[in-house]
Amino acid sequence: MSRPGPPKVMLVAGENSGDIYGAALVEAARRQGRDWRFFGLGGDRLAAAGVRLLGHVHETAVMGLVEVLGSLRRLLSVRNRMRRAMELERPDLLVLIDAPDFNLPLARQAHRLGLPVVYYICPQIWAWRSGRLRALAAYARRRLVIFPFEKKFYETRGVSADWVGHPILDELPPPRPAGEAKAALGLAPDKPLAALLPGSRRPVLARLAPVFFEAADRLLERVPDLALALPRAATITPDFLESFLARAPARVGRRLLVLPGRSRELLAAADLALVASGTASTEAMFLGTPQVVAYKSHPVSWAIARRLVKIPFVSMTNLVAGRAVVTELLQDQATAENLADRAWTLLADPAAAARARADMAEVRSALGSAGASDRAADILAEELGR
User: Fold this and answer.
1) How far is it, in rounded angstroms, from Cα 231 to Cα 99?
2) How far is 327 from 209, CA to CA, in rounded Å?
3) How many other β-carbons are positioned within 10 Å of the β-carbon of residue 359?
4) Which end of the chain has fewer CB atoms within 10 angstroms, the N or the C?
């Protein structure tokens, strides 16, 4: 006998990017007329989409072995909360979004409870920890991937996968002249603009924000009328960001405009972006914004990752291209001097900026078309109809 009422769908998004993509998925389901009841773990975007939250991403947005160990008690507490919710509410479908260290144990628990699992934005097992493939094959009924090469990777190993495309393509702001895009953010339309995106996780921002602010100060020496803006992620509280702004070079602190949650609008308007490796650097690629990518982690986490990771780049742009389309400055190379020098090249040399945009457009063309969220919602409907 079927359960009365609309289907219950539990979403678990443990990071800021998962909150964004999960909200787009919920909104796609609503557009399709699905009357599903959503609840789970997420952030402000999922809450605004009408999802009943049992936990917030600011509790779980941690990256790096040492950083995870320091937050282990809190992470386990949130995960146990999600486990209890599965047991008590018995969702018709569990949708896990990225965050494999947090989500794969939930997939195992759901399997034991007899709950069907769809894994949306599967972990990057082609880069490291390929042993996770066994867990994905055993515990997830469907595996939804966002890059075309991922489908081939799975299927050559005997595991099915659905390529739905990248959900960023559903959310890009419409193209507009650069001056108009700057004016919409309250910035002078005729001044050059640098976007600073030092990360949506506290440990990453703590390491990169001081370097980005010093690099911006060096750029101001060369470009006195340069505008600066930073889009604060939902996982970064105003007081946490302010603790770094208070120690920034004085002219950066005076010049920097903080724009909560407007990363895509800012990237679309910017002439240049200094960006932490991750979702934001992929967004910059889709928007064609010349960028310099940086990343710093705890030295122990970095040493372990270098032994485990099997790929030559960290940014998705370079991985898809198979070459260094965007500059990557990692760990000890991520200095203010290096960032400012690479950024200056993109600001001062129109030909270099044009090459960067052309190279990113080539990568973008290989990644499919918009509609990922709708395709993912269709797959959820198929699974709920089984």
Assistant:
1) 22
2) 18
3) 20
4) N
- 193-239 pLDDT, tens digit each: 999 999 988 889 999 999 999 999 999 999 999 999 999 988 899 99
Residues in the chain: 386
Encoding tokens for residue 232?
């604060």
Q: Whole-angstrom Cα distance, residue 97 to residue 44? A: 16
What tokens does 142 get? Answer: 């469907």
Residue 289 one-letter amino acid? T
The helices-and-strands tally (H runs, E runs) of the chain is 19, 13
C-alpha dihedral sign at 106, 78, 299, 210: positive
User: What domains sit in the chain, N to C, each tagged with a CATH number?
Assistant: 8-165+371-384 (3.40.50.2000), 174-365 (3.40.50.2000)
Paired strand residues for 94: 10, 117
CA-closest candidate to residue 13, choices 50, 45, 35 = 45
pTM of the predicted structure, to 2 decimals: 0.82
Q: Angle, to 10 degrees, between the axis of helix 16-31 and the axis of helix 279-287?
A: 60
Tokens linked to 84: 């209890």
135 close to 105: Cβ distance less than 8 angstroms = no
